[in-house]
Write a structure and sequence with these properties.
The protein is mainly alpha-helical. The protein contains eight helices and no strands.
Length: about 220
């Protein structure tokens, strides 16, 4: 492999990280919002959310990106590959995040929420001060696990021309007629990216533990 080959795969890694981070930044709060809809059992919206989560969670990412990129133009919505990839990954991770947040909300001790209501605390303040800190702590491991799965789902967007780590490794292997070295490099890069996410999770959990420890 030449320096250019390493650079090509590293550029693919940059695309993987960028797509993953953008979809995670969009998907985590979207999932939380949808989970709150289910927690509140809002009419109609609750049923729509259940349908969305059920469909997207069972749909392979490859199928979803092809549907968005090739089927939406039929109804007059055309998208470039990059926005289509971001939309696909965001919709996918948001569906899984919805269930993670919903599980945390279902296990949240509702009496704390009701107690804050009795002292006149506003709904938004109750959520920010009481609910959110606790569900973030309980959801963090599952959210990070979903983030790592999201990183490993990015090769799906290669079908519409996005060059991420795997696609870049395939190109290098096809050019050099030796696929093993580029895929080893790709594996190392995936491992490093996932390691950073897991390390970040452990750091946040440790800070939560220190903040909650008795003086």
């Amino acid at each position: 492999m030449t320096t250019y080959d390493y650079f090509s795969i590293a550029y693919g890694a940059l695309a993987t990280v960028s797509l993953s981070l953008i979809s995670i930044v969009l998907g985590v709060p979207l999932g939380l919002g949808l989970a709150l809809i289910r927690w509140s059992r809002l009419p109609v919206l609750n049923q729509l959310t259940i349908g969305y989560v059920s469909i997207v969670r069972t749909c392979p990412s490859v199928t979803l990106v092809l549907l968005i990129f090739y089927a939406l133009p039929v109804v007059g919505i055309s998208m470039e590959p990059l926005p289509a990839a971001i939309l696909t990954l965001t919709l996918s991770t948001a569906a899984f995040n919805t269930e993670i947040w919903r599980s945390a909300l279902a296990n949240f001790p509702r009496d704390q929420y009701d107690a804050a209501l009795t002292v006149g605390m506003r709904r938004g303040l109750r959520f920010r001060r009481i609910v959110l800190p606790q569900i973030v702590r309980s959801s963090l491991p599952a959210l990070v696990n979903e983030m790592t799965l999201q990183i490993k789902s990015t090769p799906a967007v290669a079908v519409i021309g996005i060059v991420e780590i795997t696609r870049a490794a395939i190109r290098v292997g096809a050019r050099t007629y030796d696929p093993l070295p580029p895929f080893v490099v790709a594996l190392v890069l995936y491992s490093l990216i996932v390691f950073v996410f897991v390390k970040t999770q452990r750091t946040i959990e440790r800070r939560y533990a220190q903040a909650g420890a008795p003086a």
